[in-house]
Design a protein that fits this description.
The complex is a heterodimer of chains A (371) and B (303). Helices cover 39% and strands 19% of the residues of chain A. With 371 residues, chain A is α/β, with parallel strands linked by helices. Chain A is globular and about 65 Å long. In chain B, α3 packs parallel to α5 (109-117). The chains are: A alpha/beta (371), B alpha/beta (303). β9 (205-206) of chain A pairs parallel with β2 of chain B. Bound molecules: thiamine diphosphate and iron/sulfur cluster (SF4). Thiamine diphosphate binds next to α2 and α4 of chain B.
């Protein structure tokens, strides 16, 4: 069935169809309409879940951790400052290996207050042990949420997963999305069977003091799980493709086959970038685009193109673009642009311009350093 | 009917080999509490001495499922546990937070208030040793006036706040205080709380030998004297109805409180106090009891 609705409403629908037992969430622009919609689903009986109306995002994540520790499937959603307030608990969820699924609607950080899209909120959670998906359309947001549960809950993975998409550009824009039937989703995403849980029949302590010889093992296991997740993300993405006709992997290549230059980006800039690629191709430019679907695990080994132009909607002060710096040094010729900070529009024309600038050997913060 | 100490269940949920200091009030209190709560209990424990007392991974001395959580997050995590138990139809299992005063009075107050206001089905226990002992004896919102800590070297200049009263303002079904010198009182309160629904709060005064600077053989004595001097008060509030218990009930009925000086002089943390400081503490305790007398007194059984 095709549904035309905003990214947030479609995300709430995906969360509902994934059938979490417990939702704990707190409002923040531009995520709020997800929480509102879920509260409504629960109140009118469309959704059989416990909804915890917590007093902060820190508590939202703590509650999800508590619930997941008892073996519940959980969901939460946030943005920006809410995500930052969760930071301590994000690490906790990662280290506890709890497959919590969360939507983060990307939004810039204050001061000054800015509610528009920017990826610095989620990118600064890079090392928390969360799988991070980025969607470039409302459809992808839906598909990523459903798949995220299956990937996170896989026994070879057992890591929390964050689905990110741009504030307003996707969260508040109505777009069509193909929504499968509930029974199809149920078949794809069976009931959660936790690998560990708190159980009065089998009393155990979780998270007490861990000496270094065990701690290093726990960290290493987490790293290996993230590595294994690459394979699982691929497999689940292919299975999703077979069932629903839309196949996914870690990256999505667009007209890259004979490309001299490959543009690399994530989130909605990728959608705009594909328009730019088509226009440049018409002019005879051999250019393609790679959309990173996952930022963690990072598909570094898949990004083997001679020349790359990375467009970051983020900035790491003192270093530059975050994605650019994750790729740099892989043997390719890499040009980096930072653009669209604080929700500044990045149109296909801007992307075409960045391509021209890169060809001249230029890079930097667009349009302040280069334009 | 009052339970006698010989009637407490023999089953021990605190195993041998825990990592508490000798004379630690935490293990004494938790041992009694778990006798009342039984095996269908899940503990949620924030950063605190209790996180250490469990012993090091891969061992544990606590024989009930235990979830360790970040310092300020125990009430929120317990909310999640509680909701999950409901969603998974395991409502016969009770989540119990076991947190220090730092994790309750200070950094965890917001999460505690939120969980109480939401009507979370759980018991929140604050064992109050009147400072942050895990990090080496720093002041907390529960540290009394004049007490030495490693962040109040000359003695704390402020009085402690009354968390139980803040909790009462949430109008929850059960609020009680206890201390380890009166194990049957503690046991009965835990038992009563266990049978109820919704948020229940129990605060236990927990004299800590290294933190308060007294000999490890004196924990129980220190606890008893706190009650006898009126520095600590035993009561329970059921659905808004206040009742003093044990020795505190006798004090409310007119029995004379022992001099506060007797309690203060047993503790190295008060060694430096001047007569004026002692007078300041005495005044605070007198005022507290005057208030109790006015509100709850005048009734022979202290009801
Ligand atoms: C966010 C955060 N800040 C600080 C700490 C350090 N810390 C751990 S336990 C503790 C004090 C605990 O005091 P209390 O709650 O009274 O329990 P006690 O140690 O007395 O048992 C502190 C400050 C921490 N773990 N997390
Ligand atoms: S410092 Fe005090 S509260 Fe902490 S373990 Fe030792 S005796 Fe117990």
């Amino acid at each position: 069935m095709i549904v035309i609705d905003t990214g947030n409403h479609i995300a709430a629908l995906a969360a509902k169809m994934a059938k979490p037992h417990v939702i704990a969430a707190y409002p923040i622009t531009p995520q709020t309409t997800i929480v509102e919609r879920l509260a409504q689903y629960v109140e009118n009986g469309e959704m059989d879940a416990e909804f915890i109306r917590v007093e902060s995002e820190h508590s939202a994540m703590a509650a999800c951790i508590g619930a997941a520790s008892v073996g519940a499937r959980t969901f939460t959603a946030t943005s920006s400052h809410g995500l930052l307030l969760m930071h301590e608990m994000l690490h906790w969820a990662g280290l506890a290996r709890l497959p919590i699924v969360m939507v983060n609607v990307n939004r810039a950080l204050g001061p000054g207050w800015n509610i528009w899209s920017d990826l610095n909120d989620s990118l600064s959670q890079r090392d928390t042990g969360w799988i991070q998906f980025y969607a470039s359309s409302v459809q992808e947001a839906y598909d990523n949420i459903i798949q995220a549960y299956k990937i996170a809950e896989n026994e070879e993975v057992m890591l929390p997963a964050m689905i990110c998409y741009d504030g307003f550009i996707l969260s508040h824009t109505s777009m069509p999305a193909e929504i499968p039937e509930q029974h199809e989703v149920d078949k794809f995403l069976p009931e959660y069977k936790p690998a560990w849980k708190m159980d009065v029949e089998k009393p155990a302590t979780h998270g007490n003091i861990v000496p270094p010889e065990y701690y290093i093992q726990i960290r290493y296991d987490m790293h290996l799980a993230m590595e294994r997740a690459k394979k699982i993300i691929q497999e689940v993405g292919e299975e999703f493709g077979r069932k629903f006709g839309r196949e996914y992997g870690l990256i999505h290549e667009y007209r890259c086959d004979d490309a001299d230059y490959v543009m690399v980006t994530m989130s909605s800039i990728a959608a705009e970038g594909r328009v730019a690629v088509d226009r440049l191709r018409e002019k005879g430019e051999k250019v393609g685009l790679v959309n990173l679907r996952t930022f963690r695990p990072f598909p570094r080994e898949m990004l083997k193109y001679d020349k790359m132009i990375v467009i970051d909607r983020d900035i790491s002060p003192g270093l530059g673009g975050v994605v650019y710096n994750e790729i740099r040094g892989n043997g390719s010729e890499v040009y980096g642009f930072m653009a669209g900070l604080g929700g500044m529009d990045v149109s296909y024309k801007d992307i075409e311009r960045m391509y021209e600038l890169a060809k001249q050997g230029k890079e930097g913060l667009y349009p302040l350093e280069v334009k | 009917m009052m339970v006698a100490i010989k009637d407490l269940p023999l089953d021990e949920k605190i195993l041998k080999g825990h990592a508490a200091c000798p004379g630690c009030p935490i293990t004494i209190a938790l041992r009694i509490a778990l006798k009342a709560l039984g095996e269908k209990t899940m503990l949620v424990i924030p950063a605190s001495c209790s996180a250490v007392v469990q012993a090091l991974y891969p061992k544990t001395a606590f024989n009930v499922p235990t979830l360790n959580i970040a310092f300020e997050a125990s009430a929120a995590a317990a909310s999640g546990v509680s909701s999950a138990l409901k969603a998974l139809e395991k409502e016969d299992v009770l989540p119990v937070v076991w947190a220090g005063d730092g994790g309750s009075y200070d950094i965890g107050l917001q999460a505690l208030s939120g969980a109480l206001e939401r009507g979370t089905d759980f018991i929140y226990v604050c064992y109050n040793n009147q400072m942050y002992s895990n990090t080496g004896i720093q002041r907390s919102g529960a540290t009394p006036y004049g007490a030495w800590t490693t962040t109040t070297w000359k003695g704390k200049e402020e009085h402690q706040k009354e968390l139980a009263e803040i909790v009462m303002a949430h109008h929850i079904p059960y609020v009680a205080t206890a201390t380890i010198a009166y194990p049957t009182d503690l046991y009965e309160k835990m038992k009563k709380a266990k049978e109820m629904k919704g948020p229940r709060y129990i605060e236990i005064l927990a004299p800590c030998p290294p933190g308060w600077r007294f000999d490890m053989s004196k924990t129980v004595e220190m606890s008893r004297l706190a009650v006898e001097t009126g520095a600590w008060v035993l009561y329970e509030m059921v659905d808004g109805k206040m009742e003093f218990t044990g020795y505190s009930k006798r004090l409310l009925a007119g029995k004379k409180r022992k001099p506060i000086k007797d309690w203060l002089k047993m503790q190295g943390r008060f060694r430096h106090l001047t007569e004026e400081d002692i007078e300041e503490i005495k005044k605070e305790i007198d005022a507290k009891w005057d208030y109790y007398m006015k509100i709850y007194g005048g009734n022979e059984d202290g009801k």
